Amino acid sequence: MKAIRGFASDNNAGVHSQVLKAMGNANFGHAIAYGDDKFTEEAIREIKHLFKTDTEVFFVLTGTGANVLSINALGSSVNSVICAETAHINVDECGAPEKFTGMKLIDISTSNGKLKIEKIIPHLHGFGFEHHSQPGIISITQPTELGTLYSESEIKELADLAHKNNMYLHVDGARISNAVAALGINLDVMLRSTGVDVLSFGGTKNGMMYGEAVVFFNTKLANNFKYYRKQAMQLGSKMRYVGAQFSAFFENNLWLKSAKHANDMAKLLESHVSKIPEVQITQKVESNGVFAIVPRQIISKLQDEYFFYVWDEEKNEVRWMCSFDTTEEDILEFVKVLNELLQDIKYDKQ
Q1: Distance of alpha carbon 78 from alpha carbon 38, whole angstroms
Q2: First to last CA, the chain
Q3: Residues 88-117: pLDDT tens digits?
Q4: Of the four, 42, 46, 178, 284, which is 20 to 30 A from 54 by CA?
Q5: Spatial separation of the C-alpha atoms in residues 15 and 338, rounded to whole Å
Q6: pLDDT score at 5
Q7: How many other CB atoms are found less than 10 A from the CB of residue 235?
Q8: Which residues contact residue 64 at a Cβ distance below 8 angstroms, ignoring those fewer than 6 apart?
Q9: With contact defined as beta carbons under 8 Å apart, do 201 and 63 qualify?
């Protein structure tokens, strides 16, 4: 593999220099462990300020931990969680949500990763019937795993549906920064004002080293969360380094600038590859991912130069992700290699 930067995942990117600097600045003397330090307290204040209201904020170590603990706080083992078929909690968390919460996941097929009211309603049955898991949570991802976005009104409709049925709405915000940058509305308007109950707020995919935040808008649901966090092994002893990262993340809107750059690079990539007849874009490019169908013959060769993941092997659909550190040169060189490989196919057929 020759390229330093590929297009496999924004997880593969390094740590932003300003975040590393903040961690270094926090690395002196002693600080009270387990989050009772000034760095953690400052970061929590900043997150609360973003939402302009009372919230409860807890830092955890991983995205899976944030999602599992968020869901765990919203129900019990008798409940079910309705999510998209492509949801991270359904596909990429090794059964952790079901193992640790005991809840049943009900996954719904979608064309673009977005849950629709009409697809959810048929699953809202069996309330009070002891032989059925009780629908308790709707979980969405913003942006979705296919890079698409829920509008403010769409989130509100889902929250209203959940609350009408005595359920809760959870948002997996592993890339929430990309959603905010793309939609141009603030976090408060997108999430709290629409009725979301709890958010998994990600930073790792946007320039942080590690650490996520669980943000409760429905604060009564957070009563026992600190105990659940400890039981789930998500309470880091040196939590000051997570707090320091988040403070750097928010300073001078670094989180939005980094996310906007990643989104812009995805749009640039789309603009180039969409001109290639052999490449078919399969999803709207609304955040920092490009999904496309390409000839099977070139996939492994292209991966040798710029690693990326095949999303659907049957359809030859691939996913190209851009990051805060993706450059225009990366895009242009990638497109050049792609075109060269496609030319080789044409030459072989002659």
Answers
A1: 39
A2: 29
A3: 999 999 999 999 999 999 999 999 999 999
A4: 178
A5: 28
A6: 87
A7: 20
A8: 93, 96
A9: no
Q: Which residues contact 146 (CB under 8 A, 6 or more apart)?
A: 86, 112, 113, 283, 289, 291
Convert the pLDDT of each residue in 184-212 to its tens digit: 999 999 999 999 999 999 999 999 999 99
> What would the DSSP string read from start to end of 41-65?
HHHHHHHHHHHTS--EEEEES-HHH
Beta bridge partners of 58: 214
Q: Around Cβ 152, how many Cβ atoms within 10 Å?
A: 14
Helix (H) or strand (E) holding 90: helix 88-91
Return left, alpha or beta for 34; rule: phi > 0 is left, psi -120 to 50 is alpha, else beta.
left
Q: Count of CB atoms within 10 A of residue 329's CB?
A: 9
- Residue keyed to tokens 């977005």: 114
Lookup: tokens for 207 = 């320039």
Q: Which two tokens stand for residue 99?
A: 């193992």
Report in angstroms the alpha-carbon separations of 228 from 233, 234, 242, 332: 9, 9, 19, 47
Tokens of 192: 């709290």
Three-state DSSP at 312 gives: strand
In 3D space, the residue among 138, 172, 173 whose CA is nearest the CA of residue 157 turns out to be 138
What is each CA distance from 262 to 83, 90, 161, in whole angstroms?
Answer: 26, 25, 33
Q: What single-letter DSSP state applies at residue 191?
A: I
Spell out the domains of the chain, with CATH numbers in brackets.
Answer: 18-253 (3.40.640.10), 255-349 (3.90.1150.10)
> For the chain, what's the residue count?
350
Q: Name residue 114's amino acid.
A: K
**141, 87 in Cβ contact below 8 A?**
yes
Question: What is the DSSP track for 94-119?
Answer: TTHHHHHH-PEEEEE--SSS---HHH
In this structure, the strands spanning 212-216 and 198-202 are antiparallel
**Calpha distance 153→302 (Å, rounded):** 40
- Distance CA(32)–CA(17), nearest Å, equals 25
